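Database export, one record per block. Field names are fixed; values are copied verbatim from the stored entry.
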Amino acid sequence: MRKSFAMIYTISFILFISFVMVFVIKISSYSPRIMKDLTLYTQGKILLYDAKELSKYFLYQAYLEGKECLNEYNFEYNNIKIRIDYAYPLGECKEYKLIENDANAKSIIAVNISVLLNGNKAVNEEVFLQKSFFVYSKLD
């Protein structure tokens, strides 16, 4: 009888040790993922930092090309997808022409910038950031 208890205690001890080892391995492999996510988040925040100037730049480039307005602008930078959406509260943009509902339709533009990092991976691994603001043009 004593030998059977010793065998049961030995098996339970081995099971406990194996559980602890698996748990330690799981915990140690989770740290690099946190660092990777933090790195991607920091990259996205850096891109959003000067988003206002970037959106003004694309509006100016559209103006130089003879376009009165933009609905959206999409581009990719180092496998990071960036989308800039423009909305005109006092007007409407159709085919790069501004249809004015008010005399000051060009005076205010609502901008929403979305940044998608690691988008080609699984849903839990992608990082999505966005920023919204208003751009006020100079009134002469």
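Remark 1: The chain is about 45% helix and 30% strand.
Remark 2: The chain has a mean pLDDT of 85.
End of record.
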